[in-house]
Amino acid sequence: MTGPDSQQAGAAGPIVIVCPTSRGGHIEHAFDLAVAGYRRTRQRSILLTRRGAHEYLPQRAGEFVDIREVLPPLPKRRGPASLLWYFLNLVREHAVIMRVVRAVRPSTVLFEEPRYPFPSVLGRTRGTRLVLVLHNVVEHDGLRSSNPVVDWIRLRSVRKFPSVLVHGRTQQRLLATQVGRVAAWSDLPADSYAEWLWCQEKSGDRATRVGPPAFLCLGEIRANKGIETAIGAARLAGVRLSVRGKGVDEPYLAELRRLAANSKDIAIVDSFMSPVEFSDEIDASLALVIPYTSFEAQSGPLAKGMARGKWILSSQLPSLMDQAKGYPSISFFGVGDEEALAELMRSVVESGTTQGRPSRSGQDPAGSDGDAWDATIEAVLTDG
After folding, report:
1. Which of 15, 54, 266, 356 lies in disulfide reach of 37, CB 3.0 to 4.6 Å?
2. 264 CB contacts (<8 Å, ≥6 apart)?
3. pTM confidence score
4. What's the CA gap between 229 and 231, in Å, rounded?
5. Strands 65-69 and 266-270: what pairing?
6. 110 close to 18: Cβ distance less than 8 angstroms
7. How many CA atoms within 13 Å lie on the side-chain side of 253?
8. Would you say 384 and 185 are in contact if contact means Cβ atoms under 8 Å apart?
9. Would you call 18 helix, strand, or coil by DSSP?
């Protein structure tokens, strides 16, 4: 066989990326990394995931990445037997990955989530590197979940993988402090190959927003996002606020609805958004508001907002300030400070300027220009 997938005698094998989530931010990140691997090696990376990825990812994704929906579906059982099914499913996932590794003899196997506690059995092929991408050193809702088994799997994965990659120096320092683990780091890239392909596909079918623009809180609706601060600030400033994203914490969502009640200027839409909708919401907004109260990682909405050149109002958390370093169109306010955020909102309205710099719609995967994903794949392949 000839072409970009062919291997010369003695050439390194392809990159394999394991992503157990077939929709949302993790599979987008995995796809972008896979494209970066293709750009570097000229071999299509192999992306192992669950059913639904082909439907979710761009139509042209297969030109750059070999997408294999081979991981077993997650068990839906509840109750005392759910733990047993969870372990059985985990054993099946390990077996699938082992078969692929033996068959393709990859140069590197990259794992998008810390759910594989026995990495030594996954990469027994000589010369294969195993790398764990740890997106969140601290989970969004705290250091530990409500499930001690999940916590054990996560912690063992972090400790046992030969190489770990995190987003940003803040997380690198935190991992060293919390777990005693040294990790490589790279910034979460703002541009996206997936977004570029989606925008090409949807260029003639983009929704047109109706109504005046609003300030925007975007992404999963959970308690650490501080959306109550944005609601309070919007009321003080007398401005419109749109909250868009999937609610994953029902009591918190109910509290936000209570705070927004009787206000025609505050809208909360609890729904999953496609990546194109995500970008369109940012483009149509007055400014992107990131009022997080606790967050130790790098923010996807912040990265997207910077890529699209949007004015951003962000809480003054170290990880967010680290991620936005050098971005000129951002203002910070104290965590939970409604009055300070309200003042920033008024300033945006009075200035009449909502765009900090020209917007970009991702990165052409076939382009020749270097970008942040090249730096990220370099960190994956060389431990930074």
Report:
1. 15
2. none
3. 0.80
4. 5
5. unpaired
6. yes
7. 16
8. yes
9. strand
Count helices and strands in the chain by DSSP H and E runs = 13, 13
Which one-letter amino acid corresponds to residue 156? R
DSSP states along 104-116: H--SEEEESSS--
Q: CB neighbours (10 Å) of residue 111?
A: 25
Q: Which helix (H) or strand (E) holds 260?
A: helix 250-260
User: Distance of CA 51 to CAs 19, 55, 346, Å?
Assistant: 11, 9, 46
Point out which residues pair with 18 in neighbouring strands. Answer: 48, 111
How far, CA to CA in Å, does 337 sit from each of 131, 261, 323, 344?
39, 21, 21, 11
CB of 240 closer than 8 Å to CB of 215:
yes
- Say if CB 172 and CB 183 are below 8 A apart: yes
DSSP 1-54: --STT---TT----EEEE-S--SSHHHHHHHHHHHHHHHHHSS-EEEEE-TTHH
> Are residues 357 and 309 in contact, defined by beta-carbon separation less than 8 angstroms?
yes
Cα of 60 vs its chain's centroid, Å? 21
Residue 4: predicted pLDDT: 39
Low-confidence ranges of the chain (pLDDT < 70): 1-11, 77-81, 124-125, 139-147, 202-211, 353-371, 383-384
**In this predicted structure, what is the pLDDT of residue 10?**
38
CB 308 within 8 A of CB 283: yes
Closest CA to 333 of 350, 316, 310, 352: 316
